[in-house]
Amino acid sequence: METVVSGIRSTGNLHLGNYYGAIQNFVKMQHEYNCFFFIADLHSLTTHPTPDNLHSNVKSVLVEYLAAGIDPDKATIYVQSDVPEVAELYLYLNMNAYLGELERSTSFKDKVRAHPDNVNAGLLTYPVLMAADILIHRATKVPVGKDQEQHLEMARTFGNRFNRLYNHEYFPEPYAFNFSANLVKIPGLDGKGKMGKSEGEGNAIFLSDTPEAIRKKVMRAVTDSGPTTENQQKPDEIQNLFDLMRVVSTPDTIAHFDNLYNTMQIRYGDLKKQLAEDMIIATAPIRERINDIAGDAAYLSKVARHGAEKSRESASKTIREVREIIGFRNF
Ligand code: TRP
Prior knowledge:
The protein is mostly helical. It has helices at 16-29, 41-44, 51-67, 84-94, 99-104, 106-114, 121-124, 126-135, 149-165, 211-219, 236-248, 251-262, 268-294, 297-326, and strands at residues 3-9, 34-40, 76-79, 141-142, 175-176. It folds into 2 domains: 3-185 and 296-326, Rossmann fold; 209-291, Tyrosyl-Transfer RNA Synthetase, CATH 1.10.240.10.
């Protein structure tokens, strides 16, 4: 059976972008593949969280993975830092990752632009750590969004380079995977790019948001002053609202508002009200489970321990073989 690895950085609560972009795929894949889903807390250290924030963010993601339907009896769910073998493989892969290629990564360049005062080596080698996450289980499929395509290519490069250096076909090539043919892009509410918590207050709808919070955020979403001709192309901020409807509303609802837009009768307030209610309905079961699971410390501790154990079993086998291939030998 093919092995699948994916993770989400623990920087806070999960939002609809994480859910529709990644987690729905995780939930489907867990029935068909040997899946490892982890919480990328080592990656989150690039922004220097406080110990309390680090822990509560990891807890949120763990709770929300479970609430969203990842089943710890089917998939292996673990916290990245519980598996020290990942850090060890990262060290070995770093010897084979070149400064020039790391500096050329678009995500690195974006971070340098956004935070010129915190360009640390962890940020530079972020793709190496991500490659270690994937190669540690010798995975071939990685359910991620389009923005991770370049990181996947780097993971293949580092794995292949290791294989070539030691003349050993050890690491298979990992590829991005998605069940639906066209990768879903979940836009934010600011009228610009994709949903993300770093894009500013109110841009993301979190799985843990109360219905009241969802209504407030959606009502504040950016819109224009309305169409000026019939059947005109929608500007980005309006198209974004329709894109969001596509994931939470029924086809009839979408057709209804599409028609109102095309005939210049649309009232954005009505559209937003409908969108908010549909988001509330779509997330209600998850929200309920979040509250139950978050209060069950014994269950969370059991899931984390079980996941760490299963993950380390797979990771330590790889590390044993990698050390052998590299030439670390006992006397
Ligand atoms: N870089 C990914 C993101 O930002 C998170 C991630 C870290 C990841 N390691 C991974 C995803 C390994 C898939 C596999 O979304």
